[in-house]
Design a protein that fits this description.
Elements lengths: L23 E4 L4 E4 L5 E2 L11 E2 H5 L6 E2 L6 E4 L6 E4 L20 E2 L3 E2 L3 E2 L6 H13 L6 H5 L7 E34 L2 E29 L6 H6 L8 E2 L9 E3 L5 H24 L3 E30 L2 E8 L5 E3 L5 H25 L1
Parallel strand pairs: 10-15, 11-14
Antiparallel strand pairs: 1-2, 2-3, 4-15, 5-9, 6-7, 6-8, 7-14, 10-13, 11-12, 11-15, 15-16, 16-17
The structure holds zinc ion (2 copies).
The site of one zinc ion has 8 residues, from loops.
Length: 367
Amino acid sequence: MQENPELNKENINRFLCENCGGNMVFDPKKGKLACHYCGFTKEIENSGAAIEERDFFAYLRPENQRLQKMATDAMQVSCDSCGATVVFVPPTTAKSCDFCGGKIVAQPKAADPLLAPESVLPFAVSERDALSQLNAWTSSRWFAPSQLKTMAQADKASSVYLPFWTFDTDASTDYTGERGDDYEVRETYYENGEERERSRTETDWSHRSGNVFRHFDDTAVPATTSVLPAYIDRLNWDFGELKPYEPAYLSGHLAQTYQVSLEEGFERFKQIAQNVIVGDINRDIGGDRQRIHNMHTNYSNITFKHLLVPVYAGAYRFNGKVYQIIVNGKTGEVYGERPYSWLKIGCLVTVILIVLIVVIALISATR
Ligand SMILES: [Zn+2]
Ligand SMILES: [Zn+2]
């Protein structure tokens, strides 16, 4: 049998237990590397300094030395159905896609170098607790198909770090617009030949122009497109608890590689920023109403961070549609959509009908 040279022993010695030689994984409960064979644990040493913000323009066209693997022995595999790529450290592997439920047939290959994360929000919820949260969630869904119930079993959901960008920048915006000040006018009118009075609101518009300044700090932009936007928006993260990224955090877990590039991420950031700036301009204009004719924002001192956040993700297909379930790996909150099984509802309706027919038959028989 041909051995995969990338999977040979020399390459997979990164997180071996000093005590027994078993594989150590990042344990969410203990917050450190743990050996499941002998119970030995080890703190993750922070090799670098504090989490650094990186200069945006310096990384826009990253030279090769800026690209790294998430871990020296990292492997990656891509899903043919949805295109998601996940990175992991052997012996962890990915057999099915946690985002679309598709089977992964491709062989893992050595991970491509990328803009490596410099910070991570480590898992705090163990797989066992995530599964019991999932179980509580799925068993409270009536008439759900059996596929949903089996989601709360091991292997149906994986621990995956999702990629995010965060941006810091100074935004200075010149604008022109109009300020509207309302005033009341009294007017007389006739009703049934009688003179009456009423008041009406009019607006006095005047030209305005000016500049607003805002500093954006750690504005997060998802770098994944595999998780439903409705879930991504509801997942809450406390970026104050970020740790400097160390490959050891990857041990025993998957990490999705970013699907939104740094450049595209900043474009998405600008859309988020624009809404905030429009609010600033409206406040600056003042008055009762505001109109903005032109605005031009100059972004300076742009820095970014690439970070990973923890989720348990799983997906299954039902009637040709993909259903995703996400558990926040930090808080244990479950986000999911559930289908109704018309088969189960149909069965129940049939049972009720049969019972009714029997009861009616019994009642008429006793008359
Ligand atoms: Zn051990
Ligand atoms: Zn997929």
